[in-house]
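Mods, move this if it's the wrong board.
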Amino acid sequence: MSKLTITSLSLLTFIALTSTAQAQGTEEKTKTVTITKKAYAKGDVISVARSFEMDMKMTITMPPQGNQPPAPPQVTDQKGSNQDDRLLEILEVKKGKITKVKLTFEKKVQTMDMGPQMGGAQERPDSLDKLSFTIEKVGDTWSIVNKDGPVAEGDMQKIKRLTKPIFDFQGNSLAEAIPAKTLKVGAEIKADVEVLKDLLDMRNQAFKFSEHKLVLTGTKKINGKDHALFDVKFSAQNEGGAGAAGAMVMKISGDGKLVVDVATGRQRSLTLSGSPKMDSKPNAQFSMHGDGEIKIEEKVKLESKDEEEKEEKKDK
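Not the wrong board. Structure tokens:
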């Protein structure tokens, strides 16, 4: 049976100074917004704290066996949460391309609660929890080093998936789809489906998106800096796969808020909420229905060597 969980953090490319995703600011009335882009530089340190919550209520009815009376429906309330706190330091940039970083997983744990019959809430640290890696990528050649010992193959694949967009594209956030130009309020931009799949942990599933867009709604000053505000809307469906999953249809729709630094084009904050629904197909050997809620929140802070040097010049 398919389960909707989020186990990794894929958003590493957005900026904040000292406040959270709900930082207070002054919302402004404007008709156009001009976005510019700025790449990360050597010495930049991005700290990311990501929380995820899930609540899925499932009802399963099995067909009667032989002459036995039908069994009563099985009702479960599956809850889960993740905390993923990490630190990414840019160690080397060559010809405008990031080639070396240090990635530290300060906290990476998952909590699942399948109900009292299954032992209640159980916290499970990820294999990367509290580990630090120096990662270098030149072309297709990778070097991943952990000073405390060898890196397991499974962990290497996780690290490559999380950092490859940083090396190749300077980031894999929803903000990457926003062009560096002047946009009118109300402008719609197609959100990157692969980024959405990564956010919702759909990477290995055949989900098809019928809606995936960002809508510019206005601007807001946060800590004296201009930020563009976008509504996020998405809707997708997966008709299962091999085995028991092939008997299921899963749908998810949701929305969220994206805040982008106008001067750099970097994603400053993101909140998403969605409503997954699961139903068995008519030809399934059992009947199942599920309704749920998911919530994702990012809190991000950037320490930029470039910004520090500018402040020092101002002080002089």
